[in-house]
Amino acid sequence: MKDKKKKKKKSSFVWKIMLWGVVFILLILGGVSCFALSQIGNGPSPSEQKFFSRFPNFRDGRFLNLENVKMDTKKMAKSAGFFRFIFSSPNAPPRPNPRQELIRKSFPVRPEEFNVCWLGHSTLIFELGGVRFMVDPVFGNAAPVPGIVRRFVSSPLPRAELPELDFVVISHDHYDHLEYDTIRAFRKKKFPIITSLGVGARLRSWGIPAERIIEMNWNNYTTVAGVKITAHPARHFSGRTFDDRYTTLWSAFSFERNGKKIFFGGDSGYGKHFAQIGREHGPFDLVCLEIDAWNERWPNNHSFPEEVIKEFQELRGKRLLPIHWGVFDLAMHPYYESINRVCELAKKYNVPLLLPAMGERKRLP
User: Fold this and answer.
1) Would the N or C end of the chain have less CB density within 10 A of its end CB?
2) What is the average pLDDT value for the chain, to the nearest integer?
3) Where are the extended beta strands (E) located within 77-235?
4) Are 329 and 91 in contact, with CB atoms under 8 Å apart?
5) How far apart are alpha carbons 98 and 109 in whole angstroms?
6) What is the sign of the dihedral through the CA atoms of 14, 16, 17 and 19?
7) 78: helix, coil or strand?
8) Percentage of the chain with pLDDT > 70?
9) What is the mean pLDDT of residues 268-283?
């Protein structure tokens, strides 16, 4: 009888441990889910979608590209590449890239006439005609939960050390271009945030007042702090979950002041829009184009190195700054392959390259 009682007590204890284990796991999963949901932000409301429906690039609740975008889902399903987002990436650089540490005092109180500072990936700070602005500010990882899509290298400029800005531009809502923590840090600032249609809903849900948000469709322009800002077509997609793709718009942007022009491509595969932008808005003194994350599984969402050179030529650029590389592993190619190929092609086709280290401030003529 005593042995039976002991067995019952032991069994009861084991079940209690298992039960508490399950409760603990559920609490962890619940906490992670709540955290991830906060990182996603709200999508456009039904009334906003109704407003978007008047535009030719919005149909049946989705924004459209000017040209079709192919996704080879069979190849993607066979690939085991997703695990590089969780574990150490095989494409990580063998050694740290050159970088220059920055603090707020690294920037002049009065912005310069023409200066650019690349912080890695697609995050840049421009100074144009005495105006300072930032594009796609991301300082952490490129995912809704910690530990996934980790950075190879930390930002050379801590978020808390950002200099005074006149405005911020966000090209689209992917995690490597729109970061929750950064937007939350901007809540009490005064500067406006310019972005693509629909992305404003995310910003408002994170505490940015509606009066500080300017949403733009392709081929629209606005003027902020004396800088003419134009939104241009891009060939890409949007979304922060698996079921909200194409519900917000993705754009390239150009900036013009005092006779100088900058083109910032955001994310885009090659398409006919580059030649059209070049004809109607070029030439550009500085062209910033993404060079990384290309793959035959998604051939139209990002630009292959050969296409980058063609885009630069069609935009009628004077100087090319390669971006969207150096920080994250978002495709399946070796770390240095994109920049090495772009450098080789630029030499072949006499394309002037601007290749700053991360954090290096470059004054332009």
Assistant:
1) N
2) 89
3) 114-118, 124-128, 131-135, 167-170, 193-196, 213-216, 221-224, 227-232
4) yes
5) 26
6) positive
7) helix
8) 85
9) 98
CA–CA dist 151, 136 (Å, integer): 16
pTM: 0.89
Name the residue among 341, 88, 131 with its Cα closest to residue 256: 131
Q: What is the mean pLDDT of residues 37-48?
A: 90
- For the chain, give every domain's residue range: 2-39, 104-363
Mean pLDDT across 163-183: 98
Looking up tokens 């993705």, which residue turns up?
250
Question: Looking at residues 106-124, what average pLDDT do you find?
Answer: 98
Alpha carbons 217 and 279: distance in angstroms, whole number: 19
In the block, residue with structure tokens 């994109």: 338
- Residue range 228-255: average pLDDT? 97
Q: Is the peptide bond before 137 cis (omega within 30 degrees of 0)?
A: no
What span, in angstroms and rounded, lies between the C-alpha atoms of 174 and 176? 6
Using one digit for the tens of pLDDT, what is the confidence trace for 216-226?
999 999 999 99
Q: In the chain, at which residue ranges do the beta strands (DSSP E only) sit?
A: 58-59, 62-63, 114-118, 124-128, 131-135, 167-170, 193-196, 213-216, 221-224, 227-232, 252-257, 260-264, 286-290, 320-323, 361-363
In percent, the amount of the chain with pLDDT more than 90 equals 76
361 Rama sector, left if φ>0, alpha if ψ -120 to 50, beta otherwise = beta
Give yes or no for a contact between 5 and 208, defined as CB atoms under 8 angstroms apart. Answer: no
- For domain 104-363, the question of CATH label 3.60.15.10 is answered with yes
End-to-end, the C-alpha distance of the chain in Å comes to 93
pLDDT at position 72 is 74
